[in-house]
Amino acid sequence: MASAAGATFTILFSVLATWTLISILGKAAGGKVDSGDVLALIGFAILNYLPTILILTSFISVLVAITRSYRDSEMVVWFASGISLLRWIRPVLTFGLPLVALTAALSMVATPWAKLKSEEFVQRFEKREDLKKVSPGQFKESTSSNRVFFVEGVSGESTVVQNVFVNTVEKDGNTVVVAKEGVIERQPDGSQFLVLKNGRRYHGIPGQADFQSMEFDRYSMRITTKVPALGADLPVDTLSTPALLATPNRYTLAELLKRVAAPVSCLILMLLAIPLGFVNPRAGSAANLILALLIFFTYKNLEKMAEAAIRQGKMDFSAASWPLHFIAALCVVLLFAWRVNPNHRYHPLVLWGAFKRLRAARKGVPA
Q1: Bridge pairing between strands 147-154 and 212-222
Q2: DSSP letters along 262-311, please?
């Protein structure tokens, strides 16, 4: 199981890391995040998905180990020795309980922290000075929405740019400024100015009497910068678990259900993999993996439906938190009862036939 878990985790982690890298690099190229924060944002994004990866890893690893035992006819020897399928529960729990604990720690502590840090990085970039946010070769709107910046390249420090174009919309007309170089300077009183060097300034409409054109060696314009207020408008999923418990409402309870469901589903799916791992040695084992993936995604989608029902106020937390996991646990018990019984008295078709005979007997009609 450990060997299968290592291979499964490596594959899933590699796919996730590649997808996350492409996604965040695309945002950095589009000027939505700082290029210097790419590695940190990738780490935060991967940390967010680790609980899901661990759940799928534990489920597939147990399923693969048991399927291989059936395929290699080892389970034939196992049952011929008088050992029940229930004896698999102990080694599975020995292998899986550390993964369940790790999933709970990630879901309750690490994932909210990673989302909080990722949100802080994004908000900090959104509240940076206008010139620092401009990516070379792209037009960028200012924070105050009345200026458009364009820079051709960056030289030296990230605050020094070359070939700057600034278009400012004012009450008395547009002002266009082009310069060879631009830099942001901070004054002792905390105010900030965009200082352009060796350029020209155009104001008004060409051909009109009030059109102005001038050359300058140094031109300064004040920059309005928002003061970072991190924490004021953070999403619910960035709050810590104690904070969710301290402020119970439909949004925090939906997020709490999501965090609690991760370790619970990890444990249930591992136990489900034991009876689900049955396979005919003469047949292939790919069907089991396909069925496992369908079960996993169905389980996760039903969890999201329960979270959405709480978030939308359609269901209470007490009513939406337990039915899905109870039904999943009941399926585990029924599958064990089916596999453990050698005569298959608990086969669904046998149970359905017994139900039909019982109903016919009550009506006095021969089945």
Answers
A1: unpaired
A2: HHHHHHHHHHHHHHHT---TTS-SHHHHHHHHHHHHHHHHHHHHHHHHHH
- Cβ(118)–Cβ(38) below 8 Å: no
Contact 73, 281 (CB under 8 A): yes
d(CA 302, CA 304): 5
Q: Which residue has the tokens 């990085």?
A: 121
Handedness of CA 350, 353, 359, 362 (dihedral sign): negative
Residue 281 has what pLDDT?
Answer: 67
Give CA 21 to chain center in angstroms.
13
With H, G, I as helix, E, B as strand and everything else as coil, classify residue 56. Answer: helix
Question: Cα(246)–Cα(138) distance, rounded to whole angstroms?
Answer: 45
Given strand 161-170, what is the order of strands in its sheet?
139-141, 147-154, 161-170, 173-186, 192-203, 212-222
335: nearest Cα among 97, 83, 88: 88
DSSP 164-230: EEEEEEETTEEEEEEEEEEEEEE-TTS-EEEEEEEEEEEES-TTSTT-EEEEEEEEEEE---PPP-T
Q: Which two tokens stand for residue 237?
A: 């999923």
Q: How far apart are CA 254 and CA 312, in angstroms?
A: 9
Q: Which residues contact 262 (CB under 8 A, 6 or more apart)?
A: 51, 52, 55, 103, 104, 106, 107
Rounded Cα distance between 230 and 234, Å, is 7
Residues (pLDDT < 50) of the chain are 129, 225-232, 367
Paired tokens of 82: 């008088």
Count other Cβ atoms within 10 Å, centred on residue 193.
15
Q: What is the pLDDT of residue 228?
A: 43
Cα 102 from Cα 41, distance rounded (Å): 22
Measure the CA–CA gap between 49 and 12, rounded to whole angstroms: 10
Cα 51-101-62 angle, rounded to 5 deg: 70
**Long-range contacts, stretch 332-340, CB < 8 angstroms, 24+ apart:** 332/268, 332/271, 332/272, 332/275, 335/272, 335/275, 335/276, 336/85, 336/86, 336/274, 336/275, 338/275, 339/85, 339/275, 339/278, 340/84, 340/85, 340/86
